[in-house]
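pls design
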C-alpha cells in the first residue's frame, strides 16, 4: 500500500515517516516500533493527505483498511508537527457496527460489546455527525439498553440509520477531523501557540487495543516523573475495563506502583506492571525525553498506544533536563538548550499557583516578575508601618519617585497607574525582585482618598487584600494560593553548566549591599552599574544632601559633602567586600538635583525647619531648580561639569573604599562611569578632576591608586562620536534606557500611556523599552562599538540598560563583540542561560 501512495504509510521501522510531513505523534510511534515495543498496527496519513481530505478528496479507503484485516476496530488521533499545537480529539472504536457487536459479544461478553458500541455511537454522533451533544450526553442507560437508545436517537436526529460500513465510518471521521483543523478557531488557537498559519495536520489510524473484555483488560497512563517538581516518581493511573484516558478520571482507578492509599497495578498484575515500567524506561532512554505513555492491557498483555512528552512546569523542566544529562542520556549542552531562559523566572520568584482561581481586576505592564499579595497601602510611610507590624502590603501609587524607595523596600509588591518598563517603579522593582505592575491605567487611583477602583466598578480601600502578578501583569482580587521560589540543586547544576559554555560575561545592576548579595548568589561576573543616587535617599543622608544642594557658598557645599563622604565610602567598601574582587562599576551621580527636594508645601516647611531658613527661601530655591524637561536638563555629567564638588567627593569615596576593601580582601580596581555624556570635552573635564583626586588620595595614603574610567553612552551623539570619546576612557557602557528614549524622542515615563496602542497598531513591533530596538537603537550601538574600538582596540564594551538581561539583546551584544551585559540581579540567571544557549547554537552551527 505505502509504495503506491507516499501519503499513506504503514508505520514500520523503516517506513519513510517524518515529523515535518506526518507530525510528531506518527514519528514517535515509529520510534516505539523501532524499539520493538508493542504498538498496535498504525497507519500515518501525511499533512498533504489530510489537507486533501479536508478539501473532499478521500484516499482509497479500501487500501487504507488493508493492514487492519477483515473486521477492524480502529482509532484515529491527530499528529501535528508540534504536539503543543493541539488538534482535534481522538475518536475510538471506529468500525463498531451491528455485526462486530455480535462477534464481540461472543468473545468479550455482551456488556463489554454494548459499552464499546455505545461509546462509539455517542462520540460519532457528537464529533463526526455533529448532532446535539446534550441529547447524547443525557443517555443514562448503560449496556444494551443504552446502546438501543443511542442508535434510536441517532436515527431520529440524523434522519438516517447509524452507518454500518467501517470504510464509511472512517471516511466521515477523517473528514471531520481534517476539517476541524482547517477551521478558523483551531487555526487561531494554534497560531497563538506559535504555529505558522499553514501548519499541517497528520492523522494516525491505529488498530484498537480494546481495554475491555475477558482476563485483565483496561487502560491507563504512565510517566516516570512528577510534572511539578521533575523528581523521579511513577505517576499515573490504571482502570480495569476502560479505554482512552478514562483511568485519569475513574474513581475505581488503581495506582500504578504499590501504594498505601489503595490497590495498585503492581500488586494486581505484577508482570504487566514490570513490563510497563521497562517499556517506559526504555522510551526515556531511547527517545531521550521523559515520556508519558498511554497503554492498554489486553488479557494481561501491555500495548503502548501513544507517547507524548511529559508536560511540565519550568521547575520540572530544569530537573528533567539535568537528570537526563546526568544519566548520560543527553549531553549537557542539550540539557541547556531544553530550558527556556525566561521560564527560569518561575523558579526565581513566587508565583500564583497555576491551579488557583484567578479573579483578574485589571491588567497593566508586567514590569517585574513574581507574585505577592498584601493589604493595599497608598504611601511609603504606610508601607513601612505595615512592614513594621509584619503585615505584607501592596504599595499603590500613581507612579513612584525616589522618595518611595523605603516604602518599596517595605512592600511585598507595587502597583502604579503610570509608567512603562523603565519607569522608576519598574527599575527598582526588578532590582529588588519585587513583583510590580505599572501602567494599570484602566484602574482609578484616588491616592488622597485612599481608594482604588477596578474597571468593573469594584472599589478597594486601604487594608483590602489584592495580589500583584508581575509575571503576567495582572492585578488580582484576594489572596490566591502561591508557589514558592525554588532555586534548588538542579537549578544550580544547570547554571554551572551554562557558565562553562557561555562566552559573554553577565554583570548585575546593583545599588545596595542587598542587591549585590543577591547578584553574588547568582554567581554574577561583577557589578555593571551601581546607580549611586539611590544611596542618597536614606533619610539621614537626604537632609545632608539637601543642605549641600542649598549651600550658597562653595565652603558650605564642601562641608556638606564632607559629611556625605564617609557614608559613601562605607557604601562602596561594603559593595567591594561583597563582590570579593569581582569588578564593580560605579556610576557618578546622574539625576537632576531637584529630585532630592520635597515637592509639596509640608515638605518645604519641614526642610525650612531643618535648614533653619525662611519657608519662602526654600520654596523659591526649589522652584528655581525645577526644570520643564528634567530628563534632558541638568543631570548626569552636566551636573559633574557645573557642580564638580559632587563628583570629587564620590571619586574620593571610591578611592578610599578601594584602599579599605583591598586591605583585608582581594585587590579592587574600581570602575568609575560618567553618565549622560554627549561630548568628548565633558569626559576630559571630569577625567582631569578624578585624576587629581586619585593623586591627592595617593599622596595622603601612600597607596597606589589604579582605576578605570568609563563613559555611559546614553545620548545618540555619544554613540556617533564614540571615536573621539573612546581614547579618553577604558570602557563604554550603553545605557539603552536613555538611549532608547532619546533615539525615539519618547519619554520613558510617559510612553506607557500609548505604548499598547502603538504596538497593537503595529507602529512598533514591540515596546522598545522592553525589547531592544535592534534596527534603530541597535544601529547606534553598532556604530558606537565600531567607532570606539577602531579608536581604542582594548575598549571594553557593555550594555547596562534594562534590555541587558533579555535573550534577544544578549544575542545582539554577542554579535556586536560586547564583553558583558549588565541587568537586574534577578535577571542574571536568565541572562546566563540565554548566553550559554547562544554559544551552544553557534557551536552546533
Ligand atoms: C540607561 O539609561 O540605560 C541607564 C542604565 O541608566 P538609568 O536607567 O539610570 O537612566
Ligand atoms: Mg540613563
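designed seq:
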Amino acid at each position: 500500500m505505502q509504495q503506491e501512495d507516499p501519503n499513506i504509510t504503514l508505520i514500520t521501522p523503516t517506513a519513510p515517516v517524518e515529523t515535518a510531513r506526518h507530525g510528531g505523534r506518527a514519528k514517535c510511534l515509529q520510534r516505539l516500533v523501532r524499539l520493538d515495543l508493542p504498538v498496535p498496527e498504525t497507519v500515518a496519513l501525511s499533512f498533504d493527505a489530510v489537507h486533501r481530505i479536508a478539501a473532499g478528496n478521500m484516499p482509497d479507503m479500501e487500501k487504507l483498511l488493508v493492514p487492519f484485516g477483515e473486521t477492524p476496530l480502529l482509532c484515529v488521533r491527530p499528529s501535528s508537527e508540534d504536539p503543543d499545537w493541539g488538534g482535534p480529539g481522538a475518536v475510538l472504536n471506529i468500525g463498531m457496527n451491528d455485526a462486530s457487536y455480535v462477534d464481540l459479544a461472543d468473545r468479550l461478553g455482551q456488556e463489554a460489546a454494548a459499552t464499546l458500541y455505545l461509546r462509539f455511537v455517542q462520540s460519532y454522533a457528537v464529533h463526526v455527525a455533529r448532532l446535539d451533544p446534550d441529547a447524547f450526553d443525557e443517555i443514562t442507560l448503560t449496556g444494551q439498553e443504552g446502546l438501543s437508545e443511542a442508535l434510536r436517537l441517532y436515527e431520529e436526529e440524523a434522519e438516517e440509520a447509524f452507518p454500518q460500513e467501517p470504510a464509511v465510518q472512517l471516511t466521515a471521521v477523517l473528514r471531520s477531523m481534517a476539517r476541524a483543523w482547517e477551521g478558523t478557531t483551531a487555526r487561531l488557537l494554534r497560531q497563538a501557540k506559535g504555529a505558522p498559519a499553514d501548519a499541517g495536520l497528520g492523522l494516525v489510524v491505529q488498530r484498537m487495543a480494546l481495554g475491555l473484555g475477558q482476563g485483565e483488560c483496561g487502560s491507563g497512563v504512565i510517566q516516570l516523573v512528577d510534572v511539578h517538581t521533575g523528581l523521579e516518581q511513577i505517576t499515573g493511573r490504571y482502570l480495569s475495563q476502560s479505554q482512552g484516558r478514562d483511568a485519569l478520571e475513574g474513581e475505581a482507578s488503581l495506582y500504578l506502583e504499590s501504594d498505601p492509599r489503595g490497590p495498585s497495578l503492581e500488586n494486581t498484575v505484577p508482570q504487566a506492571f514490570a513490563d510497563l515500567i521497562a517499556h517506559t524506561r526504555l522510551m526515556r532512554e531511547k527517545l531521550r525525553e521523559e515520556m508519558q505513555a498511554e497503554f492498554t492491557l489486553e488479557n494481561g498483555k501491555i500495548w503502548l498506544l501513544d507517547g507524548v512528552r511529559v508536560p511540565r512546569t519550568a521547575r520540572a523542566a530544569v530537573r528533567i533536563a539535568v537528570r537526563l544529562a546526568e544519566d548520560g542520556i543527553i549531553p549537557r549542552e542539550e540539557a541547556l538548550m531544553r530550558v527556556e531562559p525566561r521560564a527560569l523566572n518561575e523558579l526565581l520568584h513566587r508565583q500564583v499557583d497555576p491551579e488557583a482561581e484567578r479573579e483578574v481586576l485589571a491588567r497593566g505592564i508586567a514590569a517585574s516578575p513574581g507574585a505577592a499579595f498584601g493589604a493595599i497601602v497608598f504611601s511609603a510611610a504606610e508601607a513601612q508601618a505595615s512592614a513594621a507590624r509584619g503585615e505584607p502590603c501592596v504599595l499603590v501609587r500613581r507612579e513612584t519617585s525616589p522618595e518611595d524607595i523605603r516604602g518599596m523596600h517595605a512592600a511585598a509588591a507595587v502597583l502604579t497607574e503610570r509608567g512603562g518598563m523603565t519607569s522608576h517603579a519598574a527599575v527598582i522593582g526588578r532590582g529588588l525582585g519585587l513583583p510590580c505592575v505599572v501602567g494599570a491605567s484602566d484602574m482609578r487611583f484616588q491616592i488622597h482618598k485612599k481608594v482604588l477602583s477596578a474597571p468593573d466598578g469594584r472599589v478597594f480601600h486601604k487594608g483590602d487584600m489584592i495580589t500583584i502578578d508581575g509575571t503576567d501583569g495582572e492585578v488580582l482580587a484576594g489572596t490566591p494560593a502561591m508557589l514558592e521560589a525554588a532555586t534548588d540543586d538542579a537549578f544550580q547544576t544547570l547554571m554551572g553548566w551554562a557558565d562553562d559554555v557561555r562566552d559573554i560575561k553577565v554583570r548585575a545592576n546593583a545599588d545596595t549591599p542587598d542587591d549585590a548579595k543577591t547578584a553574588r548568589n547568582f554567581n554574577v561576573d561583577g557589578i555593571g552599574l551601581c546607580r549611586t543616587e539611590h544611596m542618597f535617599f536614606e533619610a539621614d543622608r537626604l537632609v545632608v544632601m539637601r543642605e549641600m544642594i542649598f549651600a550658597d557658598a562653595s565652603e558650605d557645599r564642601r562641608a556638606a559633602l564632607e559629611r556625605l563622604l564617609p557614608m559613601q565610602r562605607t557604601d562602596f567598601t561594603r559593595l567591594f567586600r561583597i563582590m570579593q574582587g569581582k569588578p564593580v562599576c560605579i556610576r557618578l551621580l546622574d539625576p537632576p538635583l531637584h529630585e532630592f527636594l520635597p515637592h509639596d508645601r509640608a515638605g518645604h516647611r519641614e526642610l525650612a525647619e531643618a535648614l533653619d531658613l525662611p519657608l519662602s527661601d526654600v520654596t523659591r530655591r526649589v522652584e528655581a531648580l525645577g526644570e520643564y524637561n528634567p530628563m534632558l536638563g541638568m543631570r548626569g555629567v552636566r551636573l559633574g561639569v557645573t557642580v564638580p564638588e559632587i563628583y570629587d567627593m564620590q571619586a574620593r569615596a571610591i578611592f578610599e573604599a578601594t584602599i579599605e576593601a583591598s586591605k583585608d580582601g582581594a585587590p579592587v580596581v574600581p570602575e568609575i562611569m560618567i553618565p549622560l555624556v554627549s561630548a568628548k570635552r565633558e569626559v576630559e573635564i571630569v577625567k582631569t578632576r578624578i585624576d587629581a583626586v586619585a593623586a591627592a588620595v595617593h599622596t595622603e595614603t601612600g597607596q597606589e591608586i589604579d582605576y578605570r574610567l568609563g563613559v555611559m553612552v546614553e545620548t545618540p551623539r555619544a554613540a556617533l562620536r564614540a571615536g573621539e570619546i573612546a581614547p579618553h576612557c577604558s570602557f563604554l557602557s550603553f545605557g539603552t534606557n536613555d538611549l532608547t528614549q532619546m533615539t525615539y524622542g519618547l519619554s520613558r515615563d510617559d510612553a506607557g500611556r500609548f505604548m499598547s496602542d502603538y504596538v497593537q497598531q503595529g507602529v512598533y513591533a514591540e515596546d522598545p523599552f522592553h525589547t531592544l530596538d535592534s534596527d534603530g537603537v541597535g544601529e547606534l550601538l553598532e556604530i558606537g562599538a565600531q567607532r570606539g574600538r577602531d579608536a581604542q582596540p582594548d575598549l571594553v564594551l557593555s550594555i547596562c540598560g534594562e534590555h541587558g538581561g533579555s535573550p534577544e539583546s544578549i544575542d545582539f551584544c554577542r554579535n556586536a563583540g560586547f564583553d558583558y551585559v549588565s541587568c537586574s540581579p534577578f535577571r542574571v540567571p536568565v541572562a546566563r542561560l540565554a548566553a550559554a544557549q547562544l554559544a551552544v547554537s553557534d557551536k552546533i552551527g
